[in-house]
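Hello, quick one for you while I still have it in my head. A protein chain has come my way and I'm curious about its shape. I'm sending you its amino acid sequence along with the backbone structure tokens. I'd be grateful if you could look everything over and explain what you see. Here's the protein in full, and shout if anything looks odd to you:
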Amino acid sequence: MIRQTHPKASRPIRGRIEADRNTKSLVQRMKPGSIALIAHDDLDSLAAESLLRAKVRAVVNAGRTLTGKLPLRAALLLLQAGVPIFEIEERDYSVLAGAREAVIHTRGITTPDGWIPCRPFTRERWVEVFLQAQGEERKQLSRFIENTLHYAANEKHWLTEPLHCEGLQTELSGKHVLIVIRGIGYRQDLAALTHYINKKKPVLIGVDGGADALLEYGYRPDIIIGDMDSVSDEALQSGAEPLVHSYMNGLAPGLGRIRSLGLKALTVASGGTSEDLALMLAYDQQCELIVTVGLHSHMMDFMEKGRPGMGSNWLVRMKVGSRLVDARGISQLYPVPSVGKGIGFRSGWTAFVKSLF
């Protein structure tokens, strides 16, 4: 809804509006200095870090940045970096999304067509809601455990049978396999594994956008697994072997994306998530070792992504655990000087990583 008048405000923020309800898609095309328009309840850390890397000037959220259900620190990352957050009503999203530019005031946003009310999401507001969410954490954990056990009991049947993947061209038997998921800290941990990757030459599997993470560091993925909703055209056209995750009934929505690019892909029916499928594929193809980066592993990981339990993930880890090395957090053992392609490591850090592999 547009209001035609607005209160006088100070420190206006002017910029080009870049809008998308899917934050992952938005950051792939944003230009520095733009105003990000999102619709994201409980903004997660990965989204916040992506917005920071996109160098946004401000964030306008048509969702509730922090609902009080989860004690998330993502919004604080933006605020501490000097990126202001403003919230608008859901009904105003489409109106603001249609504007090319806008000026944000303390209580409203001016567009060429009028004015939309907004409210700043401040540090004080973050503290208030964060503390509220912390008080509910024990109840959330109890519900999460119950959900996990319920679905684990219902989903165990598909896990006990070998994964059928006829026609796979990439050889995995007897090899190390590195699986990259765009989870928390994946950039730092992938950078920390530079020596391992160069020495062992593992088969590189990107789970959806994890394929883009590999490209970002100068590696071409051998296999891309997922429903193909958050991987770039560049990654799909890199020469990697695409493997579309389909439902147990054979329906594979991601196949349309592959065909639209003139590519061919195998489809594999499996329960659980695409990262579950990647782990089971490597295991059932008799790989020697599975190393993972960005793997989701705890309650907050899954709840940030809107998943109320981790039944399938728990079962898969029970199956593949004897060959699994989760590299999540390896970069925290020693600080990595910088993150990016061509990273230079301190001698102590290099020696430590070499000693692991």
User: Anything to note?
Assistant: The two ends are 58 Å apart (CA to CA). The CA atoms of residues 55 and 211 lie 22 Å apart. The chain has a mean pLDDT of 83.
